[in-house]
Specification:
This protein is of the alpha+beta class. Among the domains are: about 65-205; about 310-360, no CATH class; about 370-525, 2-Layer Sandwich (Heat Shock Protein 90), CATH 3.30.565. It is about 65% helix and about 10% strand. It is built from 13 helices and 7 strands. It has helices at about 15-45, 50-110, 115-130, 130-140, 145-160, 175-255, 270-325, 335-360, 375-385, 385-390, 410-430, 485-495, 520-525; strands at about 370, 395-400, 405-410, 435-440, 445-455, 500-505, 510-515. The strands form 2 sheets. The protein has a 5-stranded mixed sheet with strand order 2-4-5-7-6. Strand 6 and strand 7 (about 510-515) form a beta hairpin. Helix 11 (about 410-430) packs antiparallel against helix 12.
Amino acid sequence: MVESPIQGNGQPPPEMAPQVTEEAEVQGRLGLARDAEQARRALLNRPRFSVRLQIFLGNALAFLIAIAIAIALVASFQRMESKIRFLEIVNDYVMEVEQARRFEKNFFLYGTNLSDAQDNVFKAENILSRNAEELADIMGTGWREQMLPNLHRYQQLLEKLGQQPQSEQALSKNERLRVQSQVRAQGQQMVSAALGLLSKEKTALTEVLTRSRQLLFYSVGLLLLCMGLNAYLLGSRMLSSIGRFGQYANRIASGDFTPLTPTRRYRDEFTELALAINSMIEELEKREAVLVQSHKMRAVGTLTAGVAHELNNPMNNITLTAHMLQEDYADLDDEERLEMIGDVVGEASRAKKIISNLLDFARESGSQLEPLDLPELLRETIALASNQIKLSGIKIDFQTSGNLPRVHGDSQQLRQVFLNLILNAIDASSKGGHIHVLVLPADEPNYLAVKVMDSGSGIPAHILPSIFDPFFTTKGKGKGTGLGLSVSQGIVAKHSGRIMVSSQEGQGATFTVVLPVTTIPAELGAQQ
């Protein structure tokens, strides 16, 4: 830490002030650079989860769900196909068996078509043999024990019935009747078993169709939910980031150049944008520092030129008068000597006034703020200028609205502002003219406006932008220093107000002071 010597008045010596200011600026720039570097590291030292990756993962998840749905539906369709194929096989088998039963009945009634019945049984057996693998896939390896024994038993009984009466194996009448009864029972059992199997598989097929339909609906719902959730999360992430960067832009526009710091646990494309904004902020700060320094140098140049110009005239007059007094002292009488000394005193007073106004312009004096009755303050200010008003032969018309709120300010400083505006209006107006002073609510809420309007020749348009510049004046030589409006503008700005001017040549000028009203009661302000 660098310590600087302090004078007896508590201020550093003049020759040390620039050094301390420069050191403070350097420290400030180093601190800003350090903050920017810390912000950059904090932004980068986070796990990366980009918007692109989120889009990819969301689409990949939706794709995987769609693939799973497709696989499930394909498996369901294959299962339905196998069920339908099984139903076709069993249906063909049942048709052959039923056809054999019809020929069986013809044989019992008319003694014919037994060979046809045997042919149908053979066809039924071929159907089962030809589709053995498909039957095994659906019913398992036990399908043979479930279906073939009944078919073979029925076939054997038909062969017994087909034996000729004269053969050795011919059946007796009672045995034939018993075999016929067995054939009927075996055929009925075989058909019942096949129909039962058909009914069972139809029920299973219906269940498969129902499950497939439910799977389709639920899967599509899940897919839509996943896509909607991904869209919501992605949209929320992007919109919140865009809104956050909008707030950053407003903050930067208001003059807050604090670097952007992380607000999330991960970094993404917006991190690159934040880094770019931080880089822009750093560059803006550098350019602002250069601009401020440039304005400082310009202000110093303007101030120096103004001081030199304003002080040059009285100092020249003092020097010339003193030289004349020194050279012609013996030849001058007392009256002439006193007159010349009076000129020196007058010019010195003029120089003193210039320096006083300059100090008022540059000094950062403390303010005693209190709730003020603005109309009453204007009345007091007009009373202070009453002598100048009488001498100039100008009339002042003062108007105010009733029941106006108070403003919060320093009475002495605001009186100085209004007195300066009134005196300027007197100087701008010709003898017999009018000056209007109005106090009324401003166009924007919670503000009061004071308007000082003169009846002078007005201010040319090309001069209006410079009217508040230090040492700029439209008055004649020796009538003004050009600091009054600059000082007034600084005072009004410290009161969180504004001072504006509008004018047209030949129609006078209007100066408007806008001040915020106070929210502190007058009694409380008096106690403070």
